[in-house]
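User: Could you write out the 3D structure of this protein bound to 9YT? I've included everything you need below.
Assistant: Certainly. Input first, then the structure.
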Amino acid sequence: MIIRDLNKIIGTDMDVTGPGWTSRRLLLAGDGMGFSLHDTLIHVGQELHLHYTNHLEAVYCIEGKGRITDKGTGKVTDLRPGIVYALNEHDDHMIEADEEMRMVCVFNPPVTGTEVHDETGAYPAAPADA
Ligand code: 9YT
């Protein structure tokens, strides 16, 4: 059994920050679960363009408020605690926080730990042995 404690991850190399977000990575590819699990903060003041062409992601908002825009359809959905979005079609999207949002994120395939978004909004493909 694996036990992780967010408080022990903060400030380590499993605590990764990019422009407008901070991702505390609770479970990673190396843990062998087949997904990764992140406790992610979306900070106020930056619209994030994300497009996970190599991953599926489900995101469950547990704190804060903001919105997601589906770039394919233009549909805008308010995000608040209790709302989940699942990018089951590798959907191109934008997210923005009005109040800092705290999100529980699951990635399939799992991220290895160090990923930040490239210029297209994607994370690189998982290595074949991940
Ligand atoms: C919601 C989202 O995709 N935010 C960007 C960071 C990512 N979720 C991560 O690595 O936790």
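Residues 21, 23, 38, 40, 50, 57, 59, 95, 103, 105 surround 9YT (CB under 6 Å).
User: Perfect, thank you.
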